[in-house]
Amino acid sequence: MMRNDWQRWICYLSLVLSLLLMLLPLPVALLPLRPWWPALALIYWVLEAPDRVGLGTAFITGLAADVLAGALLGDQALRLVIIVFLAQRFRARLRFFPVVQQSAAVLLLLLNDSLLRWLIRAFAGLPMLPLLTWAAPLVGAALWPFVFLLLDALRARSRTRES
Amino acid sequence: MALSRDGSTSLFAASPGGTLRLAGYLLLAVALMMLDHRNDWLPRVRNATALAVEPAWRLAGAPARWLGDLRENLAAQSSLRSENRKLRDALLLANVRIARMQALVRQNDQLKRLLDAADSLRMQGQLARVIDIDLDPYRRRLVLNRGAREGVRVGQAAVDAHGVMGQVIEVLPNTAVLMLVTDPSSALPVIDARSGVRAVAYGSGSGDGLSLPDLPINADIKVGDSLLTSGLGGRFPAGFPAATVVSIAADRSGSYLRAEARPAARLNRSDQVLLLRDLAEPMGPPAPASDAGPPSSLIGPAPAGQVGAAPPRKTAHAGTRQ
Fold it and tell me: Looking at the 3D structure of chain B, how many domains does it have?
């Protein structure tokens, strides 16, 4: 009971933090490489707590990100829903991958998302992104092991504490 | 434990209900995007959720502010001293200039009073700090820590010590969003300080430049020319440094020139900006000279024209003044 509470708090806190990380200022040269933190956090929670995080959570997180960033309402919501759906679909296999292989899967998810983002921007008539943006999925995939281990450690701590 | 059992039942666990829900959410998202794109919903949503959005922005900006404070505290005393000396010199120089300007202002006021003009050259401003967060890195926008409660209004121009920075496009109770002149949807009417050629400088979107497309092929603009705001359109007061021309080339058809310019304001380094309270100069073309007409007391004030240089997504607020 308590453990569930703690896990829920960790989950929501990590999502909120990922939204704030998205806003954190970076040097201009590094801007296109900014990893998409909410996606990483959501993928983790879909893999580890699928009954807590689903399409609805992804949609709401995406809406919050859109309102904060002020680009196009619904853009990130749509992309996050798709990522979470794919992660849900392959969850059974992804969970038992070693971390490196998981990173590769995350890379594929994020690359697919980059394509989608490009399409959405083209349809909405927004200015095109610099080419370097296509490297952001690489950064995201490279950060995945750390995100995974950090969140896993937080979750595991709750387990030992409560048992 | 329930999780692993769920995983072992089938490797391709995907209920048809999941796909249905996906379709539902996708439809919802697409509908939102279209509504926002057509009707500009986002600012309204933001206004409704300002209570949550503003603290998030401030929270995200906090680490940068702490780092800045820390750096200031750690700065060596000697560098502070030399900086202090330099600043004092600059202050002296600025004071001298201000004194001269005041003389000019006084003279100008007298002349205007002589001309029976209603407005005087009062330029009131309000300092605002930049909250250091990146909204959408591909649009040049800044978040300021002053909002509707402090009297900030949409359409106010913002300047720093070196030139024009941009204009306020969105106001929340305690914050405001500033569109920089380098934003792709920004248009700034300028005038060449040397030759008097008028043009419109658009934000180039990529990078931190301005571009002046579609200049006549014989336009008298040279590399190194400084561009001032022309005051046409009524958004920006006239006479502020706007940019310096860095390159000129003929466009593909060969019938127009295209100039690239570097903004005069330090857009990336400004920490504080000055929001101009009211438009200093009358908008639109000057009133026709009436040296042979009736006395000036019988003539109404100059008409305030509104030339369209406003950003496409906002209604023009040209002409509001106090």
Answer: 2
